[in-house]
Amino acid sequence: MPFRYHPGPRDPGTRARRGAFTTPHGRVETPAFMPVGTRATVTGLTPADLRALDAEIVLGNTYHLLLRPGPEAMRHFGGLHRFMAWDRPILTDSGGFQIFSLAKDRTITEEGARFKSYVDCSYHHLSPELSIAMQTALGSDVMMVLDICLPSTADDAAIREAMDRTHRWALRSLAARTNPEQALFAIVQGGLSQSLRAESAAFLTQHPFDGFAIGGLAVGDTRAQRGEVIARAAELLPEDRPRYLMGVGTPPDILEAVACGVDMFDCIIPTTLAWQGTAFTSTGRVRVTRSEHRLSQAPLDAACGCPTCRLHTRGYLHHLMKCKEPLGPRLLAIHNLHHYLELMRAIRAAISEGRYARFMKDTLAAIDRHEHDPERRQPGSQAAPVAPRFELVQTRDGAAAVRDRVVGEVMHPVIGPDAESEQLYVRQSRLAERLAQAGPPLVLFDVGLGAGSNALAAVRAARAAPLGARRLEVVSFERDLGALALAASDEGAARLGLAAEDLAAARALLAEGRHEEPAATWRLVRGDALEALSREASRAEVVFWDPFSPKQNPELWTAAAFAALRDRCAAGAALYTYSTATAVRSALLLAGFFVGVGDASGPKAQTTAAATEPALLARPLDARWLERLARSSSPLPADAPAGALDAIRAHPQFTAPALAAGAE
């Protein structure tokens, strides 16, 4: 049965639309959400689980399946459907996003991309033709063309060059298709430029593609910028073929994109956050790892009819996650995907009944009451007045600092923001020395922007660098900008002693999400840090890891969190953090970092440093630390797998003779 799209009812108050498409493996109702089965499995769930949830289509990742098990194995097993025992439709991406996010581990030419495998460090080549050949071997129902995905905030010349090459590669992908029953979607690129997006859509829609995707978003852009591009791009695409927004997938994102006429979505968020203890509910996100749920007899979501909510309490789920029982994230993943798929069914019903505009407004209002995101408040929505979350206080040494009233923690509580930012982060990372070396721009991830002191200290180091130094690109990750807004207020700037240049930079970041000056770029990535890291295209050479403590922000101190970060690190990258907790150091080791003792910070005798290469550590953890690990009452992160202690003992840091005799 060939691929075919069937248009359906339209919502009178928005551009939302219903429809369906048919494939050789069945029919998919749209708007649709596709659970992500990266390596031929939706993490933690069986095909029977997915059928019970009534998932109509899943997504497979060509890049990962190309490296392991490879095209020969796919042909041997008769394709991805038989391999993973899934008899419903599958969409496969081209591998483009993963390859082009490899920064220093790939080379791009007109022919294709040469890249290093994360599996065995061997080199591979991927061209449009080879991507189609791999997807043909996978036997997916919908294939994607190979494209070039740059950060949406890249300069105009780079965006233009990538877009033009994407167009040429799209035509090569179309010519390489050999099975007419496998649909092929093209990908509209163009960054944040409305004119380039229009040009890309005009070019691609002249050719016989079966559907069109909107790519290159959620990689550095703000939510407002993203919304404008989605609305315009969807408007330019044909009515008689599906429109797919790639990799953008929180519930608010989906609700708003559906209103623009988008039909298909995918995202790793529902399952990834489940393994970190976060559930999506009808009133916003719930982190079951928090102590407030320990004795709760309430379900995750009283309005949800999934097996997790019908049978289990928040207290039980809290217990499972704290005990690191695999059943915990599995039950949360079942709930999260049920929530997403039920949302799509409700969306389709609202469109069919002509009430989508009201449905979207009411659903967003219910979610936003608990997601603390003022940017998503609907016009005219009513909320009870609340006290400001952040306040200015004095540290024990008399320095001014910012305190979060909700979690009760002070940012840089020991010696004040400027001193700690300089000592713990800028000096220890040898940022000035790194900038003085020849090379491309240095990318610095600032995880936990807070009041901006660490990022501003890095920008000041770039300003002081000698002429001809490397340019600094600071990428700050933060959900709540209240602390930075307070620091950049007139009172905050005076109390904290912000220089005029720093104050202008902070205010530009708040207003535009980006600040530019001759020596540095400072960019804001708003939202959940782990979700944002999974979408970030750049790769970090230096990381300042400074979120709130493991007690208040546990999901950012897990092995999974550091593994997500490790995937976004360049060769020779180093991380610095204030925490010295044994479980944090264990999490870093489990994620593949080499770990050592960091410099003192004020009265703190030591901090923690980690790196992708052992030579970057001045004082690596050694056998004596392993002995203390075995005696520790809390040696491992909450998500440590079975056999984690043995895995840490087998880490190259402790097995290589030259490393095992370290200085800790």
Automatic annotation (TrEMBL):
The active site is at residues 93, 266. Residues 15-366 form the tRNA-guanine(15) transglycosylase-like domain. Substrate binds at residues 93-97, 147, 189, 216. It comes from the Bacteria. Residues 519-611 form the MnmC-like methyltransferase domain. Zn(2+) binds at residues 304, 306, 309, 335. Transmembrane segments: none annotated. Its cofactor is Zn(2+). Pfam families: Methyltransf_30, TGT. Keywords: Glycosyltransferase, Metal-binding, Queuosine biosynthesis, Transferase, tRNA processing, Zinc. Gene3D superfamilies: Queuine tRNA-ribosyltransferase-like (3.20.20.105), Vaccinia Virus protein VP39 (3.40.50.150). Homodimer. Within each dimer, one monomer is responsible for RNA recognition and catalysis, while the other monomer binds to the replacement base PreQ1. Belongs to the queuine tRNA-ribosyltransferase family. Catalyzes the base-exchange of a guanine (G) residue with the queuine precursor 7-aminomethyl-7-deazaguanine (PreQ1) at position 34 (anticodon wobble position) in tRNAs with GU(N) anticodons (tRNA-Asp, -Asn, -His and -Tyr). Catalysis occurs through a double-displacement mechanism. The nucleophile active site attacks the C1' of nucleotide 34 to detach the guanine base from the RNA, forming a covalent enzyme-RNA intermediate. The proton acceptor active site deprotonates the incoming PreQ1, allowing a nucleophilic attack on the C1' of the ribose to form the product. This is Queuine tRNA-ribosyltransferase.
